[in-house]
Fold this protein.
Amino acid sequence: MRRLLVAAGILLFAASCGGGATPTAPAGGKKQSVFATLGTPTPKVLAAPKEPPRADPTLLARSALFANPDHAMPTLSPDGKRIAYLSSVDGVLNVWVAPVGDLAKAKPVTQDKKRGIRTYRWAFTNDHVLYMQDKDGDENWHLHAVDLKSGADKDLTPIEGAQARIEELSHRIPGEVLVGINDRDKRYHDLHRVEIATGKRKLVQQNDGFASFAVDHDFKVRIGMKPEKDGGLTMMEPDGKAGFRELGKVPHEDTLTTQVLGFDKSGGKAYLTDSRGRDVAALVELDLASKKTKVLLDDGQADVSDIVQHPTDKRVQAAVATYDRLRWHAIDPALRADLDVIQTSAPGDVRVLSRALDDSKWIVSTTVSDGPLKFWLYDRSKKKLDFLFTNVKALEDKKLAKMNPVILKSRDGLDLVSYLTLPREADADGDGKPDAGKGPLPMVLLVHGGPWGRDSYSLNASHQWLSSRGYAVLSVNYRGSTGFGKKFVNAADKQWAAKMHDDLLDAVTWAVTEKIAQKDKVAIYGGSYGGYATLVGLTFTPDVFACGVDIVGPSNLVTLLQAIPPYWEAEVESFTKRIGDHRTEEGRKYLLSVSPLTHVDRITKPLLIGQGANDPRVKQVESDQIVKAMQAKSIPVTYVVYPDEGHGFARPQNRTSFNAVAEIFLAQCLGGAYEPIGGDFKGASITVPAGRENVTTLGDSLGK
């Protein structure tokens, strides 16, 4: 369910705000041009557009923040002899491999020419790299295997219109991968064992209505999650007769905070994050034979989000939970000693990214908010940490702003873990408060996607970008964000455009009261659910925000839910409990009442919309229809569409080009400095079907 509206990478309001008739839901699904039936009317400008106050080519370059990373996702081969990572070949992300200890010999092993590879895995053969790729953002993922000896690239799932998922890799079965494929029934992924060398596959488990399966290290299905009409899940286990029997119930209120993370060496014990009977999700061991459970760890404040298991014996050695900052809980004292060595040698939040099978070597990362991500090779026997590289070399010598965690209060008493970044020139000591005479500042409220995701402490490219332009930047974990317990996440049920929005408004009020933000210069900016929040902000509370930037945000919750991908069928009941029921007349009426499209006539502030034409989650019609409605009422809007993108902008040329437009848009609205577009449209597929005249220099840069 967390997949619903998460923007790549990169994503709330008083329901009593009435006004406007409730329209009939537009038909969804069919892609149409904004201008197909409307033409190109001249919009009525509500206020004279403001010229950007200052173009400054010396600003921190967008290219340093939004281009492909120099290095990303480094991992060790299972035998510990080689390192793989993502880096560019002619501007496109590919997988590179180098011998451990000799990065100078790194060579690209994949040959993607267009979209770039964003996820890969080592096979336990040590001679194959597996990666996923879709077509222009359609999310019909194909699984590829690259033979490192021959260089051959084989599509293991060459099925048009189907989606593949890696379900499991195991050192016990090195020549195979367990893959979920929905070619039989688009709604459900059947499990197949696939030979890495040949692509031959064998059915392991047909999926007849399960939301997911959890398998052990022998590719044996141990648990299936069956969705129920009440929005909950029933945990099922194989009955030994080709069927399943009930193992336990996960009520609706626990579905976002309870999941299977892994199994022990035998497969007889499951490790779960489990919120049943408590608020925050604890790490729990479930004995599948006796059905007894044992709590291994309870953070007490934040959900356990991940575990570290020994590479071969699979015992749990540590767990991670994140409240305002990441924190480790070591269960194995030996691993605690290693983490202490790493933390002492390399300040920042530590993550263990990869381990050799013999556990002799690790790759770890360390995160600070005002410098690039650093990657290290750790030798366990020597207790020695060797620096590998950073993710962005261009940021190594830059003076960046610090991100400060702050805990805000909602009007009904919830703690909202948030992150604030101020321009360095306004906060010399980095304490998150404007220096004397430097505030209040224009502010950008960044709203994350999901909504079942979260913001975290990190080097955040958007925070650095916007703060370097003179803006305060605030990210809020509003109710519904994950990691803070089930009460917090469930407090968002049926609160779209209601209490979820109130949390954002309360954050703005806090920033204004603390003299951080200028009341009349607050922009709202977000992707996916954050895009919806932007549209809600400009329709439900138009006097609060000076302008908005919406990226792949839904405008009509009825058409959104009617058009969800078929492989989310198992999650529909949960969606209806958390958002609203699009299948009933009463449910549609409610959903329309909290849809920005219903209240489009209230928009009085500048709006910029970005959309990928192939988005399978929030289809292009969501943006088309609100642009069309605004034009029908002569309300100005600028609309940017990428024909080769999906849910978010994966290609760096497209990311950078959109941010170039957004930067000038914000400068006109908030008065900050902006970096000229320059060559940032080169190689991008950017189209602007509406409103190019609303953004200074945009028409000239497009050249047509």
Summary: The two ends are 42 Å apart (CA to CA).
